Fold each of these.
Amino acid sequence: MDTGSDRPGEVVVAADKAQADGAPESGEQGLGSRAPAFVKKSRALHLSWQVGVFVIGLAVVVAGIIMLPLPGPGWVVIFAGMAIWATEFVWAQLVLRWTKRKVTEAAQKALDPKVRRRNITLTVIGLVIVGILLGVYLWKFGVVMPWKIRDQ
């Protein structure tokens, strides 16, 4: 584990790959609030701003959670709520960075030719099995539409 130091007992507080002077690397924004300067000047206004961002982000995340079992882009909405939170809260920025890194790693892994061949093979095998089961069901029971069922 890279703690940013070679001496035992020392740890780096920020895990965002920031340079020593606090400037972020390679176009990444630093951690922290992105509220306008006039909002940051007043403690009460900044706290109100944070509460507003939290409530809006929470509403979006809850809407995404509701969309998971229902029709709708649930995960996209959840990540949009996390992005709203990430405009103001460091913990959400870190979660969003971790998620982006994991999605990028998964995309790179999925593009690997061996993995693609394996996934295509498993998909074809699964479709063949489903086709066989569907054929056996139709052979055994036939096609009976619900509106043609006779009372017995």
Amino acid sequence: MTPISSPSRTDLDALFLQPVRLFIACLLADTSWHPELAVQQALGLPAADLDLHIESLRAAGYLRCRAEPRELRLTPLGLDRLLEHIGALKTVAATAGALVAEVRAALPAESPP
């Protein structure tokens, strides 16, 4: 069996395990200022829900906000953590795919799919 190579716990970011937060960071990955309304519309979220996710990212230092009209920007720290997280997710997905392929290849030829 193929050895399982797992990313370190520090590569997977707990904040980005919540898909909405991951997508917010992805939308802001150019690190320029974006209207909060544009992010809200892209995600199809109510303002109150988006605010909770923004506050979590802001408190971690991953996101900056500026006032009226409210704009959002990913910080350099946020971009670094986003890229590390995506790299770790790729490792997890590749390992899972390899394991599934190996297990499926080991099935007897007459086994149904």
Amino acid sequence: MKKRPFLPSMAAVFAGALLVGGCASPQAQPPPRTTSVSQSWAMAYPTLKDLTQSADAVVVGTVATSAPAAAVDGIPFTDAAVAVKLWLKGTKPAATITVRQTGGALKDSVVVAEGDAIMQPGEESMLFLQKNDDGTYVALSGPTGRLPVSGRSVTKMPESSLTEAIPATLPEMIVAVKRFL
């Protein structure tokens, strides 16, 4: 019997060509560059009483969506749609409010305010808010006006100007805030 020279099948040739030439997925885009900026808040709120009395609205809510808003003078903003579970202070305009934060997407980078990460969907917080002329809200002194809620626990954000201890649970926090209204 005569030996035949090795002739690969068409399938093997095709598979080899794909592996070598064009099977690779397109190059993944590198993640956007993150730029961290420091903020200086105009007001400090060292006590819960100061924070509560200065707020136009105090709510407990959960972020439903978070999306870029129009940049102003090259500064990016993000709008979080917050589903309000409880209004403690202020006029209830709707079941969902828009909370605007400094930071977000800007061309090929993401700008993040130090100590005030962009609110993400599913995040629950007690918010001490100032109402803007356009109907949106901002948290007083950024991280100070935003107290994350996890289960029944309430905490201060690390960059908060609150210097006093706050109640550890949401029910206790609600009682404390109501005392200052």
Amino acid sequence: MSSVKTPSRPTSETSPRESVADKLSGAAPRSAQTKQVRLKLVYIDFWSAVKFSFLIAAAVGVVIVVAVLLIWTVLSSTGVFEQITQLVQDISGNSALSVSNIVSFAQVMGFTLVIAALNVVVGTVLGAIACLLYNLSVRITGGILVGFTQ
């Protein structure tokens, strides 16, 4: 007999008390009692809220620009713009019309950058307004009760 230990066969050195079923059914060691703390949120720092809302709005602006770039690339590579140009030419009877002349990549990306910049400005302002409104409403409501565990 070999002395190789495999997970499926316990060796003769292990006692029947230490079987897998016994280990699994045994009581798990108890962790220390968790301490719960209840705190009231009664103030949000204005500049922290403005910085946080700016970062979130800037991240959303980057996502918008990348999404439009990817969508434009997919539509251009699959030939959707050529099919739309052909459809417009068939309907109008004018073979000089082209969708790519009306809506070019530079125009779409320029419009997207303007929208992303406006999103950053509006998102930052809305975050500041929300902070001010919360700080004013705390005077009436007393704040939000938040629970934490340690």
